[in-house]
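Researcher: Let's continue the batch. This sequence belongs to NTPase, and it's 154 residues. Same format as the previous ones, please.
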Amino acid sequence: MIYLLTGVVRSGKTTRLLEWSKNRRDVAGILTPDRRQRRVLLDVRTGSEHPFQVQSKAESVISIGRFTFSARTFEIGRAILKREREADCRWLIIDEIGPLELRGKGFEPEVEATIRFFKNHAPQRNLILVIRDTLKDAALKHYGLTDPVIFNFP
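Model: Same format as before. Here are the structure tokens for NTPase:
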């Protein structure tokens, strides 16, 4: 089953998923919570955090709007999705699908591969996609999602 968690920016989508998943052993994927006013990439299964939102342009970065992200951390996120796609977990989270992914960047091509895998090979497992409300329709069309369960947050 594919679930779509959508809502306005900064409405608590990530925080809610973080709280829901923290004591579960059947959840994997990536979350992007804020730590000390900076976004990090959290490997849900291992609990490891990676600096994601950066200020320095000294390293390889990807900019979107007013935000600058570590290109290396996007690589880590893609590797986590690839690793967890076929792993034995009941729930897989992708937080979040944003403008970069809709342009084939960011966590792509792993987001598309994961959605395709869940559509075709994992009917007994659950995929949670976090998408801000303003991108919901574009993401549904882009990924060919015709029947996800949609939760509008809050």
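Researcher: Any comment?
Model: The helical segments are 13-21, 71-85, 99-102, 110-121, 136-142.
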